[in-house]
Amino acid sequence: xxxxxxxxxxxxxxxxxxxxxxxxxxxxxxxxxxxxxxxxxxxxxxxxxxxxxxxxxxxxxxxxxxxxxxxxxxxxxxxxxxxxxxxxxxxxxxxxxxxxxxxxxxxxxxxxxxxxxxxxxxxxxxxxxxxxxxxxxxxxxxxxxxxxxxxxxxxxxxxxxxxxxxxxxxxxxxxxxxxxxxx
Length: 183
What we know:
Pfam families: FMN_red. This protein has helices at residues 15-29, 56-67, 84-91, 95-98, 115-127, 155-177; strands at 2-7, 33-38, 70-76, 102-108, 131-132, 137-139. By secondary structure, it is α/β, with parallel strands linked by helices. It is globular and about 45 Å long.
């Protein structure tokens, strides 16, 4: 199984990226191949439908998505929605790259939860013909929720993240077995 994780923040030490790195460690511990796209490091030019000669970073991200069996998208919640940097990255994707792939949505908010960003993210996934996981992960109060190793400090949150990842992996196995997701 191969997963592509996209960290949708351009902030150093973003809570959403820390959480995604923790999820990456859970996947790697299960011997799952992970491709990690950090949009802070792999910056993309502003998408324009007038220019289909994409920047190498955009081409690399598109290829990583195309090769994945499943996607995990992480975003901070900004003004009740996803980050501009993640929206820009998703604009580069076409339904043919995402169609039928399971997607787990993850957010981090400065307040208690980031539900609005997750709802918006799932709408975008549906429009790309991806299959939203029945669970999502939202972490509140930013980076105060994580220890120095990136693991959630709260045992309940740690359990919830593990359960959501397991649910996502079950969905990925099911779709891959049916030949829906990429091989």
